[in-house]
Amino acid sequence: MTAPRGRILVLTGPPGSGKTTVARLLARRFDRAVHLEADSFFHAIASGYVEPWKPASHEQNGVVMGVVGDAAVSFARAGYFTIVEGMILPGWFYEPLLARIRGGGIDADTVVFRPPLAVCVRRASSRSTRPMGDHAVIERLWHGFDDVGVLERSVIDNGADDPEASVDLISARL
């Protein structure tokens, strides 16, 4: 499939919602695509790292989301369909990311995955890389997507879907 030039998709949701799997599959459908995992930008901080959910992380989070946004804009300008994927919570991460993308002269589509909590717990606990065993943390992050405001129109409950069905749904929306 030919990539929509200059397009950015922000794919977000709680842990275990299927973001990474779907982003990888979606990127493969296009001739030119990039999958940016926002978490990897946080992992690049070698010292001075503050857990991103702590109040003291506000400045760090803004810097990281700015860097992610700059990277996304650069790839999109070069003609790549760019997927920015991660737990990009509205009220914490989404707004600084979107501001940086729009400041670069590009708009972004957004999809919020919000399957049922039990599905997220099962998926996050059983994944092969970086499984999350603390169900309380998964639940707290899941509730972070309860009220997504104007993004509610972008919510997909992909709890029953297989990843390819989610990719098909996103492709149709694009």
Secondary-structure topology with pairs:
Layout (H helix, E strand, L loop, with lengths): L7 E5 L6 H10 L4 E5 H6 L14 H20 L3 E6 L7 H10 L4 E6 L3 H10 L8 H9 L11 E2 L6 H11 L1
Parallel strand pairs: 1-3, 1-4, 2-3, 4-5
Helix pairs in contact: 1-7, 3-4, 5-6
Terminal-residue CA separation = 12 Å
Count of separate DSSP helical elements: 7
Instruction: Give the amount of beta strand, in percent.
Output: 5-15%
Task: Give the CATH architecture.
Answer: 3-Layer(aba) Sandwich
Strand order of the largest sheet: 2-3-1-4-5
Rounded average pLDDT = 90
- Any low-confidence stretches, pLDDT <50, length ≥5? none
- Coarse structural class: alpha/beta
The level 1 CATH classification is Alpha Beta
Radius of gyration from the alpha-carbon trace, in angstroms: 15 Å
Q: Overall 3D geometry?
A: globular
Report the sheet with the most strands, covering strand number, pairing sense and barrel closure: 5 strands, parallel
What is the CATH topology? Rossmann fold
User: Would you report the number of β strands?
Assistant: 5
The fourth-level CATH homologous superfamily is: P-loop containing nucleotide triphosphate hydrolases
* Elements, N to C (H/E): EHEHHEHEHHEH
Q: Roughly what percent helix? A: 40-55%
Number of domains: 1
Features:
174 residues, alpha/beta, Rossmann fold, 7 helices, 5 strands
